[in-house]
Amino acid sequence: MRKFSGLHQYLIQKGIIDEKDVVEPTMADFTELNLAHTSRYSHGMWSGDLSRKEIRKLGLPWSKGLAIRSRLAVRGTMNAAIMALQDGIAGNLAGGTHHSMPDGGEGFCVFNDVAVAIKVLQQTKWASKVLVIDCDVHQGNGTAEIFKNDPDVYTFSIHGEKNYPFVKPPSTYDIGLPDATGDKEYQQVLTDALDKIFNDFTPDLVFYLAGIDPLETDHFGRLALTLNGLRERERIVIETVTQKELPLVLLLSGGYAPSITQTVEAHAIMYEQAVEISKHYFH
């Protein structure tokens, strides 16, 4: 949990973002959460009225603080989406909790912030066709499940084939990579996939889940990206989307580097790249 405050401080200290550009969210409403989750689950998560089995599956001990933080994170992603539609690019210094299912959390993911944000945007007509680019090393099973019957939401997940979750509901497009996949192969597969996706689908808005867990140093990743490889991945995704003049939402997703410092520095690469690239496309 310490990576969130650590990243916020790091980005400001390094001058990557300005304090005045950071917007503190309020909590997402239940009416919004319930567009992607069952009322039983969202209220149960808030009150702590969940079974021991549900809490075990979530992977985090229940607390009121966790419930508050999770609702704040969802609103952060909703805010970032609306700001991206207005400004071209925005990010949440949290979010990307893609394992959360309609009726339960799992894999450290309480609410599916991307799914809630997309549902709200569709309902309010801010956006209709949405692309989710999920580069977390774990397949985005919750997002895939929630949008399996929605042709206006294209879910793309590039992940470790042999990694969690062991049951992977099909995304619109899944690429499962073998263990120890390195920089060059990863970048080629990703570039080809993005070409295919944008040939097939024209979104109003793109969400990018930039998990840093494909790094070779990650505790749970099993892939073999270097920091330079991660930097190139961020450049490929952000440049591809911004060149098409599509609004882009940046989200953290997972990352379990050997130390908090390494985790923070790896997550910061996405924001460094976004600031650099956006100078050329947004004024």
From TrEMBL:
Domain Histone deacetylase residue range list: 4-264
Keyword Zinc attributed: no
Taxonomic superkingdom: Bacteria
Protein's UniProt keywords contain Hydrolase: yes
Keyword terms: Hydrolase
Record InterPro entries: HDAC_classIV, HDACs, His_deacetylse_dom, His_deacetylse_dom_sf, Ureohydrolase_dom_sf
Stated family: Belongs to the histone deacetylase family.
UniProt-recorded name of the protein: Histone deacetylase
Taxonomy of the source species: Bacteria, Pseudomonadati, Balneolota, Balneolia, Balneolales
